[in-house]
Amino acid sequence: MRRNAFDIEFEDRNFEISFNLNPQRWIDNCPDCDNPIFCEDNWQPEIKYLNSTNDGISDEIKAIPSNTGGIYLFFIKGITLPFMEKHIVYVGRCHYTDLQNINKRAKEYFTDKRPKIKNMFKRWGQYVYYRYYPDINNDTIDKNEVMLIRAIKPDFNEDIPDKLDFQPIVKAF
Q1: DSSP 24-86
Q2: Up-side HSE of residue 6: CA atoms within 13 Å toward CB?
Q3: Spatial CA neighbour of 130 closest among 110, 154, 106, 151
Q4: What is the pTM assigned to this prediction?
Q5: CATH number at residue 118
Q6: How many Å apart are CA 18 and CA 37, to the nearest integer?
Q7: Which terminus of the chain is more solvent-facing, meaning fewer CB atoms within 10 Å of its CB: N or C?
Q8: How many CB atoms lie under 10 A from the CB of residue 59?
């Protein structure tokens, strides 16, 4: 069977996400290769966002600790090769303050009114997963969010933030 015939047979543009792998974008936006955010062991394990009936938040999301902020990712995980079929669709950050933490922020997405976020759950709800990198340094959180959004350009991030200036650390004395 020719590929064109296969594509036409199963075409459903409502569920189509395309992406580009751009090594130069990675290099330009991730200058600090020693950044601990690049080590998978520093990220918390993936969590299925919705419960088994897809009408509420999973118990694992509810159990995320409230004593940290950090960077988080929403990604779509396929079922054919789930260990390989993962596509990051949103990168966000959560400052750690008296009023905000990673637990509270994760739960807020269930009632988010932004059209792209609503569509993410409407179209891919049962395949939406969440992963986070805990951090309490709000300046680092901001820099890491910008760096990741600019390097990955996730589909549901509406704004690509201005590039941050990364200055090398210089000893004062």
Answers
A1: HHHHHH---TT-GGG-GGGSPPPEESB-TTSSSB-HHHHTS-SS-EEEEEEEEE-SSSTTT-E
A2: 3
A3: 106
A4: 0.82
A5: 3.40.1440.10
A6: 25
A7: C
A8: 11
Q: Indicate whether 129 belongs to any domain.
A: yes
State the Cα–Cα distance between residues 38 and 51, nearest whole angstrom: 29
Closest CA to 61 of 113, 111, 119, 136: 111
pLDDT (tens digit per residue) in 111-160: 999 888 888 999 999 999 999 999 999 999 999 999 999 888 898 888 77
| Structural domain span for residue 46 | 37-152
| Residues 89, 120: Cα–Cα separation, whole Å | 8
User: CA–CA separation, 121 vs 118, rounded Å?
Assistant: 5
Amino acid, res. 8: I
Q: Which two tokens stand for residue 38?
A: 């690049």
Helix (H, G, I), strand (E, B), or coil: what is residue 91?
strand
Burial 79-97 (b: 16+ CB within 10 A, else e): eeeeeeebbbbbbbbbbbe
Please tell me the total count of domains within the chain.
1
Residue 24 in any domain: the answer is no
In a domain, 31, yes or no: no
